[in-house]
Design a protein that fits this description.
about 240 residues; mainly beta; Porin; eight-stranded antiparallel β-barrel; about 10% helix
Length: about 240
């Protein structure tokens, strides 16, 4: 096992354990902060005999919670790792997913943006950088994601896509950049920490195709891509 792959597996296991611990629901016997009752206001008498409704102060929409913080999602203030019951909703959801991992034996840093036009199908664009001492690569592709949404935190999926890989020779190699076609196929697993945040692990097979000097026809090279990432979800529209 290469050092890059060893630290990748260690990171996947560590993040999964931390996510599982953080997602543990609060116990029923945990103390609940007491809330002081608000005394009912007595309406002032009116000389005209008409009923007068007392004015009450409306709570400020951006008032801090009990922990002193202003939460962008108020529903998560009491339990930040709460997960909505039922099947995970993917319809009209946008996902931004930065991640890192390995392409072959070298490191890979990438950014993915995905949109789900319906519950079981999503479209995703990926751009990645594969640094190396002698040769670097820039990976960009367009993929389709197919899944069957389940209830619970774990959501598996399958994916396949096509893109281009730009190979950039380093200073030690006197050569021009080369662009090659690339096919990617595989699957992954999402672990939802809460309704809008998931940990994502993915393994792909990638076939890079192109012409090579002094050889006839296309030459194909197979690589394995392994990544872990965060996935930030937002719903578009009502």
């Amino acid at each position: 096992m290469t050092p890059n792959r060893q630290w990748l597996y260690t990171a996947i296991v560590g993040i999964a354990l931390v996510g599982a611990w953080a997602a543990t629901p609060a116990r029923a016997d945990d103390p609940v902060p007491a809330v002081d009752p608000v005394p009912a206001a007595n309406p002032a008498p009116s000389d005209s005999g008409a009923d007068v409704t007392p004015a009450t102060d409306a709570p400020a929409p951006d008032a801090p919670a009990a922990d002193g913080l202003i939460h962008l999602v108020p529903a998560l203030a009491a339990n930040p790792y709460r997960l909505e019951p039922g099947v995970r909703p993917y319809l009209h959801r946008l996902s931004i997913s930065p991640g890192f991992g390995a392409l072959g034996s070298e490191k890979l840093f990438l950014l993915r943006v995905a949109y789900n036009p319906n519950a079981w199908l999503g479209y995703e664009g990926t751009i990645g950088h594969n640094p190396s001492h002698s040769v670097q690569a820039i990976v960009h592709r367009f993929s389709a994601i197919v899944r069957r949404p389940l209830s619970g935190r774990f959501q598996p999926y399958a994916t396949a896509g096509y893109g281009m890989t730009i190979v950039l020779p380093g200073r030690s190699i006197n050569a021009d950049p080369v662009t090659k076609n690339a096919l990617a196929y595989g699957g992954g697993l999402e672990f939802f920490v809460r309704s809008d945040l998931a940990l994502r692990a993915e393994m792909l097979g990638m076939t890079v195709m192109g012409r090579q000097q002094y050889r006839q026809g296309l030459v194909a090279y197979d690589y394995r891509e392994e990544t872990i990432a965060l996935a930030f979800y937002r719903t578009l529209g009502p």
